[in-house]
């Protein structure tokens, strides 16, 4: 079943001139399902079903780790988790491993590049500071353009949805435009859940925000955060290059003024920045 957040994504794609087949391929959905939801003017309220615990649950992290290490043989992993106390059937294990195989196999891929103006990547960095004599955590919103590596950084006191949306608007103003797609690492203010097929269940309010401003949402596959390496590199660069330069600041306005000055004079992620719009 399509969740409400995805409903707005489908209608936004249709507005952009995408065909039903193109939308279905992009979202991994059946064409009949896409056609049915395009005929709806409003989404149907979703009632979340309580997920029953599985005997495999305590072993899932171990299975993922073994698959990441290159072991894709269900018989081998079955013997290993059985020795650790697993009492379920091998068919349950095979069903769990099957959708993970493509992502594990595709890890040996070349660096993924995007065309100008197509994609941006977003994530939060976290920093501890001394705030009026008390320890405090600040959050750095980082958006990196996929093609140019141009970066926008804004420090905040929280990661709330309202804060996130405001940061997006200021980032678009800073860049002079907005990308076609924004990629996220499954932050809870954006991705509410994943359905039984592994599709992101978008936060409905944020999906409405994205549709209103004309950009599409994309999530990293679970356990594939490496697909947003550009913004991870950006956060690391802020931490290693900008943060040591901060000797003192009087508040968020002062700190954000300092980081904007830094963005002008320092190339991001070791690459020359240029406007992609």
Overview of this structure, please?
With 277 residues, the chain is an alpha/beta fold. The chain folds into three domains: 4-38; 57-105; 119-185 and 220-265, 2-Layer Sandwich (Nucleotidyltransferase, domain 5), CATH 3.30.420. It has helices at residues 4-15, 20-27, 31-38, 60-68, 74-83, 90-97, 101-105, 161-175, 204-213, 229-242, 252-265, and strands at 119-131, 134-145, 151-156, 181-184, 191-194, 200-202, 216-219. The strands form two sheets. A five-stranded mixed sheet has the order 3-2-1-4-7, with helices on both faces. Strands 5-6 form a two-stranded antiparallel sheet. Strand 1 and strand 2 (134-145) form a beta hairpin. Helix 1 (4-15) runs parallel beside helix 9 (204-213) and helix 2 (20-27) packs across helix 3 (31-38). The radius of gyration is 21 Å and the shape is globular.
Task: Supply database-style keywords.
11 helices, two-stranded antiparallel ribbon, single chain, alpha/beta, 277 residues, Nucleotidyltransferase, domain 5
List the helices and strands and how they pair.
Layout: H1 4-15, H2 20-27, H3 31-38, H4 60-68, H5 74-83, H6 90-97, H7 101-105, E1 119-131, E2 134-145, E3 151-156, H8 161-175, E4 181-184, E5 191-194, E6 200-202, H9 204-213, E7 216-219, H10 229-242, H11 252-265
Parallel strand pairs: 1-4, 4-7
Antiparallel strand pairs: 1-2, 2-3, 5-6
